[in-house]
Specification:
This is PLCG1 EF-hand domain-containing protein. The structure is a single chain. The protein contains 8 helices and 7 strands; from the N terminus they run αβββββαααββαααα. With 200 residues, the protein is α+β, with helices and mostly antiparallel strands. The protein folds into 2 domains: 138 residues, Pleckstrin-homology domain (PH domain)/Phosphotyrosine-binding domain (PTB) (PH-domain like); 57 residues, no CATH class. The protein has a 7-stranded antiparallel sheet. The longest helix is centred in the middle third of the chain and has 19 residues. The protein is elongated and about 60 Å long.
């Protein structure tokens, strides 16, 4: 019971988001603050500008199902004995490796890396623990739950902004006909639109 409560606390904290800086191997580091957050409805990690005040802001998202591994850089360098670029990178060497989290993701053989610098070790551990739990949970999710999450993600992508939780008929029609490949009458689309209001 306690473990479940701890994981839920982690997930809530991840939804609120934390301040991070992103690094890229073998490139000069510029301390630009970002907000890393977790979106439960779509099972995504989201990286946005920290001080963004507008609803339309550029963001990077990573679907949890594409994440292959999450480790602190400290673990990779001391326990996994990974050398190569990690120990050659001057920026990585001068920072506390226990504050750095490496998220390996992608669909090809060569994975992408999102390397994030956290403000403290506890927050870095929280995200390491939380993402690893969510990866396992996603892999073992029922088909019904996977379909629900996919639908939420599709509808979320149709929203005009994060503050307006509704999808217009104009947007719904091509989605149903092209994505779902289903021919629907205007009356049916109206009913679907009404259901979507409760879906969110």
């Amino acid at each position: 019971m306690g473990h479940g409560m701890d994981i839920e606390k982690d997930c809530v904290a991840m939804e609120l988001g934390h301040k991070v800086c992103r690094l890229q191997l073998m490139k000069k580091w510029e301390p630009l603050y970002k907000r890393l957050s977790y979106k439960r409805e779509t099972q995504e990690l989201i990286l946005t500008k920290w001080d963004s005040t507008t609803t339309k802001t550029s963001k990077q998202t990573i679907d949890l199902k594409w994440i292959k591994e999450v480790q602190t850089v400290h673990y990779k360098m001391t326990q996994m004995n990974i050398e190569d670029k990690w120990k050659k990178d001057r920026e990585v060497r001068r920072l506390d490796s226990e504050l750095l989290l490496d998220i390996s993701y992608g669909t090809s053989f060569v994975l992408n890396h999102m390397i994030l610098l956290f403000e403290n070790k506890d927050t870095c551990k929280l995200w390491n623990r939380g993402i690893n739990y969510l990866i396992t949970e996603t892999q073992h999710a029922s088909h019904c739950l996977q379909v629900e999450r996919w639908m939420r993600k599709q509808f979320t992508s149709l929203l005009v902004s994060d503050s307006i939780n509704s999808v217009s008929m104009k947007q719904m029609k091509p989605f149903v006909q092209v994505v779902l490949q289903y021919k629907a009458q205007a009356k049916d689309l109206q009913e679907i639109s009404e259901v979507c209001k409760f879906f969110f």
